[in-house]
């Protein structure tokens, strides 16, 4: 199901949010709901899980994904009846996916469902907020490790209320990269493996993979690695985490080095724009169907 919009997201321009919008109150509510949803995730984490496939054999959904999304959207809609919603599971189920100027919550109930199914402890509850098609706040909560990443435009980025900053390292040869190399199609696999090889030959220190796009980005925000890139992710994977990276002093861009378009299903998050520019010299790009 495509998400329809006439404009790309901007993370650099100022917007007039108006006196009607209390972003801090919105994000505080999102944090409270993420913690409540985290109880559902932790309770189900070690239990047997009923698993179904969506687009392919490795694109999984569980009962917990659905329950968490229903909880988040129902509570937010009750408190903010004029707000709009884009949720992973509801979009997959066929609900209209419309990105407008209205306050819009972009939600991934369990980012890292494969991890969740295998009890691998990198699982993120992601709640991003856009106004006038700009991400203005975001929450990513790992309930297994009880880590709450949060950011509001212009207010900095935090993990469990402590400020976080990206790495100061800008040298590609001294950088640790994060990416994922799952199988979606032969073409995508071939490009990913070629990029993997090219970057290693360029001299990066190595790759890590956590299995959650949002948590990968949060680890860039906290300075644990210097650059994360991925092809094939969705707007709900990156919306909340993108502002956490930028508020931590980093950049989130298109993999070509241009402005980020969260509907274009690819992104690179890094400690600096100069590192992104060097990265783009060593990779081939994939153009995927837009959200």
TrEMBL record:
<dbReference type="Pfam" id="PF00459">
    <property type="entry name" value="Inositol_P"/>
</dbReference>
<dbReference type="InterPro" id="IPR033942">
    <property type="entry name" value="IMPase"/>
</dbReference>
<dbReference type="InterPro" id="IPR000760">
    <property type="entry name" value="Inositol_monophosphatase-like"/>
</dbReference>
<feature type="binding site">
    <location>
        <position position="237"/>
    </location>
    <ligand>
        <name>Mg(2+)</name>
    </ligand>
</feature>
<feature type="binding site">
    <location>
        <position position="88"/>
    </location>
    <ligand>
        <name>Mg(2+)</name>
    </ligand>
</feature>
<feature type="binding site">
    <location>
        <position position="111"/>
    </location>
    <ligand>
        <name>Mg(2+)</name>
    </ligand>
</feature>
<comment type="similarity">
    <text>Belongs to the inositol monophosphatase superfamily.</text>
</comment>
<feature type="binding site">
    <location>
        <position position="108"/>
    </location>
    <ligand>
        <name>Mg(2+)</name>
    </ligand>
</feature>
<dbReference type="GO" id="GO:0007165">
    <property type="term" value="P:signal transduction"/>
</dbReference>
<keyword id="KW-0460">Magnesium</keyword>
<dbReference type="InterPro" id="IPR020583">
    <property type="entry name" value="Inositol_monoP_metal-BS"/>
</dbReference>
<keyword id="KW-0378">Hydrolase</keyword>
<comment type="pathway">
    <text>Polyol metabolism; myo-inositol biosynthesis; myo-inositol from D-glucose 6-phosphate: step 2/2.</text>
</comment>
<dbReference type="InterPro" id="IPR020552">
    <property type="entry name" value="Inositol_monoPase_Li-sen"/>
</dbReference>
<dbReference type="InterPro" id="IPR020550">
    <property type="entry name" value="Inositol_monophosphatase_CS"/>
</dbReference>
<dbReference type="GO" id="GO:0046872">
    <property type="term" value="F:metal ion binding"/>
</dbReference>
<keyword id="KW-0479">Metal-binding</keyword>
<protein>
    <recommendedName>
        <fullName>Inositol-1-monophosphatase</fullName>
        <ecNumber>3.1.3.25</ecNumber>
    </recommendedName>
</protein>
<dbReference type="GO" id="GO:0006021">
    <property type="term" value="P:inositol biosynthetic process"/>
</dbReference>
<dbReference type="GO" id="GO:0008934">
    <property type="term" value="F:inositol monophosphate 1-phosphatase activity"/>
</dbReference>
<dbReference type="GO" id="GO:0046854">
    <property type="term" value="P:phosphatidylinositol phosphate biosynthetic process"/>
</dbReference>
């Amino acid at each position: 199901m495509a998400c329809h919009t006439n404009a790309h997201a901007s993370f650099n321009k100022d917007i007039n949010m108006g006196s009607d919008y209390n972003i801090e109150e919105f994000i505080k509510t999102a944090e409270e709901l993420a913690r409540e949803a985290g109880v559902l995730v932790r309770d189900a984490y070690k239990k047997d899980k009923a698993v179904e496939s969506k687009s392919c054999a490795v694109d999984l959904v569980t009962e917990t994904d659905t329950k968490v999304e229903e909880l988040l959207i129902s509570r937010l809609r009750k408190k903010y009846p004029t707000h709009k919603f884009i949720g992973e599971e509801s979009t997959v189920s066929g609900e209209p996916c419309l990105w407008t100027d209205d306050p819009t919550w972009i939600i991934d109930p369990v980012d890292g469902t494969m991890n969740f199914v295998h009890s691998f402890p990198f699982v993120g509850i992601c709640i991003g907020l856009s106004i006038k098609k700009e991400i203005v706040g975001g929450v990513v909560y790992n309930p297994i490790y009880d880590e709450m990443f949060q950011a509001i435009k212009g207010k900095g980025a935090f993990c469990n209320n402590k400020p976080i900053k990206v790495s100061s390292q800008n040298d590609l040869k001294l950088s640790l990269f994060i990416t994922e190399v799952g199988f979606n199609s032969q073409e995508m696999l071939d490009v990913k493996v070629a990029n993997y090889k090219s970057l290693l030959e360029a001299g990066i220190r190595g790759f890590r993979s956590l299995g959650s796009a949002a948590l990968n980005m949060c680890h860039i925000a906290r300075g644990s690695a210097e650059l994360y890139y991925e092809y094939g992710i969705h707007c709900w994977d990156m919306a909340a985490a993108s502002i956490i990276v930028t508020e931590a002093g980093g950049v989130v861009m298109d993999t070509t080095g241009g402005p980020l378009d969260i509907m274009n299903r690819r992104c690179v998050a890094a400690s600096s724009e100069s590192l992104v520019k060097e990265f783009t010299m060593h990779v081939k790009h994939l153009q995927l169907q837009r959200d």
